[in-house]
Specification:
The chain has 327 residues and is of the alpha/beta class. It has one domain: TIM Barrel (Alpha-Beta Barrel). It contains 11 helices and 12 strands. An 8-stranded parallel β-barrel has the order 1-4-5-8-9-10-11-12, surrounded by 8 helices. It is globular. The two termini are 39 Å apart. It binds ligand PBG. Ligand PBG binds next to helix 6.
Protein backbone atom coordinates (compact mmCIF):
# COMPACT_ATOMS: atom_id res chain seq x y z
CA UNK A 1 0.00 0.00 0.00
CA UNK A 2 1.50 3.36 -1.08
CA UNK A 3 1.30 5.90 1.66
CA UNK A 4 1.20 9.62 1.31
CA UNK A 5 3.16 11.00 4.23
CA UNK A 6 3.50 14.80 4.29
CA UNK A 7 5.68 14.50 7.38
CA UNK A 8 8.53 13.12 5.26
CA UNK A 9 9.32 16.66 4.18
CA UNK A 10 9.16 18.09 7.68
CA UNK A 11 11.81 15.96 9.31
CA UNK A 12 14.67 18.48 9.63
CA UNK A 13 15.11 22.25 9.48
CA UNK A 14 17.05 21.98 6.23
CA UNK A 15 14.43 19.82 4.59
CA UNK A 16 11.73 22.20 5.71
CA UNK A 17 13.64 25.11 4.26
CA UNK A 18 13.87 23.31 0.89
CA UNK A 19 10.11 23.04 0.56
CA UNK A 20 9.18 26.37 2.13
CA UNK A 21 6.76 28.19 -0.19
CA UNK A 22 6.83 31.71 1.19
CA UNK A 23 9.93 33.86 1.56
CA UNK A 24 10.11 36.71 4.04
CA UNK A 25 12.95 39.18 3.58
CA UNK A 26 13.97 42.33 5.37
CA UNK A 27 13.49 44.23 2.09
CA UNK A 28 9.75 43.45 2.33
CA UNK A 29 9.43 45.68 5.38
CA UNK A 30 8.44 49.34 5.59
CA UNK A 31 9.31 51.04 8.87
CA UNK A 32 6.96 53.81 10.11
CA UNK A 33 8.47 56.80 11.91
CA UNK A 34 6.70 59.52 13.89
CA UNK A 35 8.44 62.86 13.57
CA UNK A 36 7.33 65.57 15.95
CA UNK A 37 7.77 69.30 16.12
CA UNK A 38 6.52 69.54 19.71
CA UNK A 39 9.28 67.55 21.39
CA UNK A 40 12.95 68.22 21.94
CA UNK A 41 13.98 64.60 22.33
CA UNK A 42 12.81 61.03 21.72
CA UNK A 43 9.47 60.50 23.49
CA UNK A 44 8.20 56.94 23.89
CA UNK A 45 4.59 56.17 22.92
CA UNK A 46 3.21 54.36 25.96
CA UNK A 47 0.62 52.30 24.07
CA UNK A 48 3.26 51.14 21.58
CA UNK A 49 6.30 49.83 23.49
CA UNK A 50 9.44 50.24 21.39
CA UNK A 51 7.95 53.08 19.33
CA UNK A 52 8.78 56.73 19.99
CA UNK A 53 8.06 60.16 18.60
CA UNK A 54 11.30 61.54 17.20
CA UNK A 55 12.82 64.89 16.37
CA UNK A 56 13.96 65.45 12.78
CA UNK A 57 17.59 64.68 13.69
CA UNK A 58 16.58 61.55 15.59
CA UNK A 59 14.46 60.40 12.65
CA UNK A 60 17.47 60.65 10.37
CA UNK A 61 19.54 58.66 12.89
CA UNK A 62 16.80 56.06 13.24
CA UNK A 63 16.57 55.73 9.46
CA UNK A 64 20.34 55.30 9.23
CA UNK A 65 20.32 52.62 11.94
CA UNK A 66 17.46 50.79 10.21
CA UNK A 67 19.26 51.02 6.87
CA UNK A 68 22.37 49.45 8.41
CA UNK A 69 20.15 46.55 9.51
CA UNK A 70 18.77 46.02 6.01
CA UNK A 71 15.52 48.02 6.17
CA UNK A 72 15.08 49.75 2.82
CA UNK A 73 12.06 52.00 3.31
CA UNK A 74 10.47 54.23 5.90
CA UNK A 75 6.97 55.70 6.12
CA UNK A 76 6.78 59.14 7.70
CA UNK A 77 4.07 60.65 9.88
CA UNK A 78 4.32 64.20 11.18
CA UNK A 79 3.12 65.82 14.38
CA UNK A 80 3.08 69.60 13.81
CA UNK A 81 3.33 72.30 16.47
CA UNK A 82 0.38 74.17 14.97
CA UNK A 83 -2.94 72.69 13.90
CA UNK A 84 -5.71 74.62 12.17
CA UNK A 85 -8.82 74.06 10.07
CA UNK A 86 -6.96 74.13 6.76
CA UNK A 87 -4.18 71.73 7.83
CA UNK A 88 -1.67 74.40 6.74
CA UNK A 89 1.32 72.53 8.12
CA UNK A 90 0.49 69.48 5.99
CA UNK A 91 1.71 71.31 2.88
CA UNK A 92 4.13 73.89 4.31
CA UNK A 93 7.54 73.54 2.67
CA UNK A 94 9.13 73.93 6.12
CA UNK A 95 6.65 71.50 7.71
CA UNK A 96 7.79 68.69 9.94
CA UNK A 97 7.46 65.88 7.39
CA UNK A 98 9.05 67.95 4.63
CA UNK A 99 12.03 68.66 6.90
CA UNK A 100 12.26 65.01 7.94
CA UNK A 101 12.27 63.86 4.31
CA UNK A 102 15.19 66.16 3.54
CA UNK A 103 17.10 65.08 6.65
CA UNK A 104 16.63 61.37 5.96
CA UNK A 105 17.48 61.72 2.28
CA UNK A 106 20.64 63.57 3.15
CA UNK A 107 21.66 61.04 5.85
CA UNK A 108 20.70 57.92 3.85
CA UNK A 109 20.25 58.88 0.19
CA UNK A 110 19.26 55.39 -0.93
CA UNK A 111 16.52 54.91 1.66
CA UNK A 112 13.10 54.84 0.00
CA UNK A 113 11.18 57.55 1.77
CA UNK A 114 7.40 57.16 1.75
CA UNK A 115 5.21 59.87 3.22
CA UNK A 116 1.74 59.38 4.62
CA UNK A 117 -0.49 61.94 2.93
CA UNK A 118 -3.33 62.79 5.26
CA UNK A 119 -4.69 65.84 7.03
CA UNK A 120 -5.80 64.43 10.39
CA UNK A 121 -2.56 65.19 12.26
CA UNK A 122 -2.66 68.77 10.97
CA UNK A 123 -6.33 69.60 11.49
CA UNK A 124 -7.43 71.11 14.81
CA UNK A 125 -10.50 68.81 14.69
CA UNK A 126 -8.51 65.67 13.82
CA UNK A 127 -10.48 64.65 10.71
CA UNK A 128 -8.78 63.55 7.51
CA UNK A 129 -10.35 66.28 5.39
CA UNK A 130 -11.94 69.71 5.64
CA UNK A 131 -14.78 69.36 8.13
CA UNK A 132 -17.93 71.23 8.99
CA UNK A 133 -18.77 70.46 12.59
CA UNK A 134 -22.05 71.23 14.32
CA UNK A 135 -22.23 69.64 17.75
CA UNK A 136 -21.98 65.90 17.17
CA UNK A 137 -22.54 66.18 13.46
CA UNK A 138 -19.42 66.17 11.32
CA UNK A 139 -19.49 66.64 7.57
CA UNK A 140 -16.16 65.92 5.90
CA UNK A 141 -16.05 67.69 2.54
CA UNK A 142 -14.66 65.49 -0.18
CA UNK A 143 -13.74 67.67 -3.12
CA UNK A 144 -12.52 70.63 -1.09
CA UNK A 145 -10.16 68.28 0.73
CA UNK A 146 -8.63 66.97 -2.51
CA UNK A 147 -6.87 70.23 -3.19
CA UNK A 148 -5.15 70.20 0.19
CA UNK A 149 -4.16 66.56 -0.13
CA UNK A 150 -2.68 67.24 -3.55
CA UNK A 151 -0.72 70.18 -2.15
CA UNK A 152 0.60 68.01 0.67
CA UNK A 153 1.69 65.31 -1.78
CA UNK A 154 3.47 67.84 -4.02
CA UNK A 155 5.25 69.37 -1.02
CA UNK A 156 6.47 65.91 0.04
CA UNK A 157 7.71 65.18 -3.48
CA UNK A 158 9.44 68.56 -3.58
CA UNK A 159 11.21 67.66 -0.34
CA UNK A 160 12.45 64.46 -1.96
CA UNK A 161 9.91 61.76 -1.09
CA UNK A 162 10.10 58.76 -3.43
CA UNK A 163 6.55 57.59 -2.80
CA UNK A 164 3.49 59.37 -1.45
CA UNK A 165 0.87 57.33 0.37
CA UNK A 166 -2.59 58.90 0.66
CA UNK A 167 -4.43 57.48 3.68
CA UNK A 168 -7.35 59.89 3.95
CA UNK A 169 -9.92 57.83 1.98
CA UNK A 170 -11.46 60.79 0.14
CA UNK A 171 -12.91 59.77 -3.22
CA UNK A 172 -10.79 60.78 -6.19
CA UNK A 173 -7.67 61.64 -4.25
CA UNK A 174 -5.33 59.39 -6.21
CA UNK A 175 -6.28 61.11 -9.47
CA UNK A 176 -6.04 64.55 -7.88
CA UNK A 177 -2.60 63.77 -6.46
CA UNK A 178 -1.32 62.24 -9.72
CA UNK A 179 -2.42 65.28 -11.73
CA UNK A 180 -0.86 67.68 -9.24
CA UNK A 181 2.42 65.73 -9.10
CA UNK A 182 2.64 65.62 -12.90
CA UNK A 183 1.83 69.32 -13.19
CA UNK A 184 4.61 70.11 -10.77
CA UNK A 185 7.11 67.98 -12.67
CA UNK A 186 7.13 65.01 -10.29
CA UNK A 187 6.17 62.37 -12.85
CA UNK A 188 8.47 59.87 -11.20
CA UNK A 189 7.07 60.14 -7.72
CA UNK A 190 5.03 56.97 -7.12
CA UNK A 191 1.68 56.66 -5.35
CA UNK A 192 1.05 53.94 -2.79
CA UNK A 193 -2.64 54.21 -2.12
CA UNK A 194 -4.23 53.09 1.14
CA UNK A 195 -6.92 51.72 -1.16
CA UNK A 196 -8.84 49.45 1.19
CA UNK A 197 -8.65 51.17 4.54
CA UNK A 198 -11.23 50.16 7.08
CA UNK A 199 -12.71 52.19 9.94
CA UNK A 200 -10.91 50.12 12.56
CA UNK A 201 -10.64 50.16 16.32
CA UNK A 202 -7.14 48.74 15.83
CA UNK A 203 -5.83 52.27 15.08
CA UNK A 204 -6.24 53.35 18.72
CA UNK A 205 -2.56 53.41 19.76
CA UNK A 206 -1.55 55.19 16.53
CA UNK A 207 -3.81 58.09 17.40
CA UNK A 208 -1.84 58.51 20.65
CA UNK A 209 1.41 58.36 18.70
CA UNK A 210 0.30 60.80 16.00
CA UNK A 211 -2.01 62.93 18.14
CA UNK A 212 -4.68 62.53 15.47
CA UNK A 213 -7.86 61.34 17.19
CA UNK A 214 -10.96 63.13 15.88
CA UNK A 215 -12.27 65.66 18.43
CA UNK A 216 -15.88 64.94 17.47
CA UNK A 217 -17.49 62.08 15.60
CA UNK A 218 -15.54 59.22 14.01
CA UNK A 219 -14.11 58.26 10.63
CA UNK A 220 -16.90 56.00 9.46
CA UNK A 221 -18.15 58.39 6.78
CA UNK A 222 -14.87 58.00 4.89
CA UNK A 223 -13.10 54.84 6.04
CA UNK A 224 -14.67 51.53 5.07
CA UNK A 225 -17.19 49.40 6.93
CA UNK A 226 -15.37 46.30 8.27
CA UNK A 227 -18.26 44.19 6.94
CA UNK A 228 -17.53 44.94 3.29
CA UNK A 229 -15.20 42.88 1.12
CA UNK A 230 -16.71 43.48 -2.33
CA UNK A 231 -16.66 47.21 -1.70
CA UNK A 232 -12.95 46.89 -0.87
CA UNK A 233 -12.39 45.43 -4.33
CA UNK A 234 -14.28 48.33 -5.90
CA UNK A 235 -12.20 50.82 -3.90
CA UNK A 236 -8.99 49.19 -5.10
CA UNK A 237 -10.21 49.11 -8.72
CA UNK A 238 -10.96 52.83 -8.56
CA UNK A 239 -7.54 53.68 -7.17
CA UNK A 240 -5.83 51.63 -9.88
CA UNK A 241 -7.93 53.38 -12.54
CA UNK A 242 -6.84 56.66 -11.00
CA UNK A 243 -3.23 55.48 -11.50
CA UNK A 244 -2.11 54.20 -8.11
CA UNK A 245 1.23 52.43 -8.56
CA UNK A 246 0.79 50.25 -5.48
CA UNK A 247 -2.19 49.50 -3.29
CA UNK A 248 -2.50 48.84 0.42
CA UNK A 249 -4.88 46.91 2.63
CA UNK A 250 -5.25 48.07 6.22
CA UNK A 251 -5.40 46.75 8.96
CA UNK A 252 -3.53 43.49 8.46
CA UNK A 253 -4.34 40.30 10.35
CA UNK A 254 -8.10 40.81 10.72
CA UNK A 255 -8.26 41.56 6.97
CA UNK A 256 -6.14 38.79 5.44
CA UNK A 257 -9.12 37.73 3.31
CA UNK A 258 -9.19 41.19 1.73
CA UNK A 259 -5.44 41.12 1.14
CA UNK A 260 -5.69 37.76 -0.59
CA UNK A 261 -8.57 38.84 -2.82
CA UNK A 262 -6.90 42.13 -3.75
CA UNK A 263 -3.68 40.38 -4.76
CA UNK A 264 -5.51 37.63 -6.68
CA UNK A 265 -7.78 40.04 -8.50
CA UNK A 266 -5.44 42.89 -9.40
CA UNK A 267 -1.93 41.43 -9.29
CA UNK A 268 -0.59 44.84 -8.30
CA UNK A 269 2.34 45.53 -5.99
CA UNK A 270 0.38 45.14 -2.77
CA UNK A 271 1.18 46.34 0.72
CA UNK A 272 -0.44 45.52 4.02
CA UNK A 273 -0.39 47.64 7.17
CA UNK A 274 0.30 45.70 10.36
CA UNK A 275 -1.33 48.44 12.42
CA UNK A 276 -0.68 49.88 15.86
CA UNK A 277 -3.35 47.86 17.66
CA UNK A 278 -2.06 44.59 16.25
CA UNK A 279 1.45 45.52 17.35
CA UNK A 280 0.29 46.66 20.81
CA UNK A 281 -1.63 43.43 21.47
CA UNK A 282 1.45 41.31 20.89
CA UNK A 283 3.59 43.61 23.04
CA UNK A 284 1.07 43.49 25.88
CA UNK A 285 0.71 39.72 25.78
CA UNK A 286 4.47 39.26 25.57
CA UNK A 287 5.02 41.59 28.53
CA UNK A 288 2.75 39.29 30.54
CA UNK A 289 4.63 36.22 29.41
CA UNK A 290 1.55 34.99 27.53
CA UNK A 291 3.01 34.95 24.01
CA UNK A 292 6.45 34.57 22.52
CA UNK A 293 6.91 37.99 20.88
CA UNK A 294 9.48 36.93 18.33
CA UNK A 295 7.68 33.78 17.21
CA UNK A 296 4.28 35.47 16.99
CA UNK A 297 5.64 38.49 15.13
CA UNK A 298 7.53 36.42 12.57
CA UNK A 299 4.54 34.12 12.04
CA UNK A 300 2.34 37.18 11.50
CA UNK A 301 4.71 38.75 8.95
CA UNK A 302 4.97 35.43 7.12
CA UNK A 303 1.17 35.15 7.06
CA UNK A 304 0.98 38.54 5.33
CA UNK A 305 3.38 37.34 2.65
CA UNK A 306 1.52 34.05 2.21
CA UNK A 307 -1.75 35.98 1.81
CA UNK A 308 -0.26 38.02 -1.03
CA UNK A 309 1.56 41.01 0.45
CA UNK A 310 4.67 42.19 -1.35
CA UNK A 311 5.34 44.82 1.29
CA UNK A 312 4.53 45.01 4.99
CA UNK A 313 4.32 48.22 6.96
CA UNK A 314 5.27 47.26 10.50
CA UNK A 315 6.48 48.93 13.69
CA UNK A 316 8.39 45.69 14.30
CA UNK A 317 10.59 46.22 11.22
CA UNK A 318 13.87 46.65 13.11
CA UNK A 319 13.15 43.71 15.43
CA UNK A 320 12.20 41.56 12.47
CA UNK A 321 15.38 42.60 10.65
CA UNK A 322 17.40 41.40 13.62
CA UNK A 323 15.46 38.15 13.95
CA UNK A 324 15.85 37.44 10.22
CA UNK A 325 19.58 38.04 10.51
CA UNK A 326 19.87 35.76 13.53
CA UNK A 327 18.01 33.12 11.50
C1 LIG B 1 -3.99 58.62 9.09
C2 LIG B 1 -3.54 57.24 9.44
C3 LIG B 1 -3.99 56.40 10.48
C4 LIG B 1 -3.17 55.27 10.45
C5 LIG B 1 -2.30 55.44 9.38
N1 LIG B 1 -2.57 56.65 8.76
C6 LIG B 1 -4.99 56.61 11.54
C7 LIG B 1 -6.42 56.71 11.23
O1 LIG B 1 -6.85 56.51 10.10
O2 LIG B 1 -7.14 57.04 12.16
C8 LIG B 1 -3.24 54.12 11.41
C9 LIG B 1 -1.99 53.31 11.54
C10 LIG B 1 -1.91 52.42 12.73
O3 LIG B 1 -2.89 52.22 13.49
O4 LIG B 1 -0.82 51.89 12.94
N2 LIG B 1 -5.26 58.77 8.63
Amino acid sequence: MLSRRPRRLRATPVLRSLVRETPLAVSDLIYPLFVSEVITRRTPVSSMPGVAQLTVEEAAQEAAAAWAEGVRSVLLFGIPAEKDEQASQAYASGGIVQRAVRAIKSAVPQMIVITDVCLCEYMSHGHCGIAQIEGDHVEVLNDASLELLARAAVSHAAAGADIVAPSDMMDGRVAAIRLALDDAGFENTAILSYAAKFASAFYGPFRDAADSAPQAGDRRSYQMDPANALEALREVALDIEESADMVMVKPGLPYLDILWRVKERFEMPTAVYHVSGEYAMVKAAAANGWLDERAVTMETLLAFKRAGADLIVTYAARDAARWLREG
